[in-house]
Design a protein that fits this description.
6-stranded parallel sheet
Length: 284
């Protein structure tokens, strides 16, 4: 079992424990265990579907004998009325699991749809769209999975896979040079080869980073496009460049046209509207 499968399996079991608790009393009271049914997962609006693979794993987790019938693949464009998946199982299983399954796939599809729109807006540029850590705890694997399905790329999975010197680090340790030197001491002490990103808020901080060096990427925090273009010219290819702060579908293209290498946007995941879907069940 690979790592992602294990994480998703744990998530599914935890989500069902939260929702089902000691039992789905209404379904147990009304529906006999012997009744079998088929469920259809259907889109109610257009977008990009994400969560097909999750749903397959979900139904197999709660009923190993379930027959899952995907009609589309993760990343496919769908319209209202598109049948995404069918599943055959005990009726009790379908009724008990439907809301948990739908909550996740609607959430993932909302993210993938949002990402695809932003990727399409900058497709003819060299800029790469990245996600951020602005995700609810315990939802990160699902959200970042959906970002990849939508066509974006994952940035840090957590605090452990890149040095990211932010303004609070700089302010607390006494300045940019001290922060960069401290990271390099940590790399030497631990044998780490993780890349280093540093955040700058203005041109004075940028000039100090350019003098110090010792980083892989400079992140420009809340620079508007004209200022960003000027800053990238000053960097002149010596470091990777990244724009972040207040970037969304309405302005992402203006940022991409500055020549920046990467664009990171919390809006990809932190305030996304779920894609509308429903789950219809009938006796099989």
């Amino acid at each position: 079992m690979d790592a992602k499968y294990e994480i998703v399996d744990h998530y599914i079991r935890a989500a069902l424990r939260e929702d089902v608790g000691t039992g789905d009393v209404t379904t147990e009271a009304i529906i006999p265990p012997s009744l079998h049914a088929r469920g259809w997962w259907i889109a109610k609006e257009e977008g990009v579907v994400a969560g097909v693979a999750f749903a397959e794993q979900f139904w197999k987790t709660i009923d190993a004998s379930a027959i899952v019938e995907p009609r589309v693949r993760d990343g496919d464009a769908i319209s209202s009325g598109t049948v995404i998946m069918g599943v055959r199982s005990r009726a009790q299983t379908l009724l008990t699991g439907e809301r948990t399954m739908l909550n996740v796939v609607q959430y993932m599809s909302g993210i993938a749809t949002n990402v695809r729109r932003m990727v399409d807006a900058i497709r003819d540029t060299e800029a790469v769209l990245l996600d951020t850590r602005k995700v609810l705890p315990m939802h990160r694997t699902l959200a970042k999975w959906a970002v990849r399905i939508g066509g974006g790329q994952n940035y840090r999975m957590g605090l452990y896979d890149r040095y990211f010197i932010k303004n609070n680090h700089i302010d607390l340790c006494g300045g940019i040079r001290r922060a960069i030197e401290a990271v390099h001491r940590h790399r030497t002490r631990t044998g780490s080869q993780l890349p280093i990103t540093i955040e700058v808020r203005n041109f004075n901080e940028l000039e100090e980073v350019l003098q110090c060096g010792g980083v892989d990427r400079i992140l420009f925090d809340n620079f508007d496009p004209p200022a960003l273009r000027q800053a990238i010219q000053l960097v002149d290819g010596r470091f990777e460049t990244e724009a972040s702060g207040g970037i969304h579908l309405g302005n992402v293209r203006a940022y991409a046209l500055t020549g920046v290498d990467y664009i990171s946007s919390g809006s990809l995941t932190h305030s996304v509207q779920a894609l509308d879907m429903h789950f219809r069940i009938e006796i099989s």
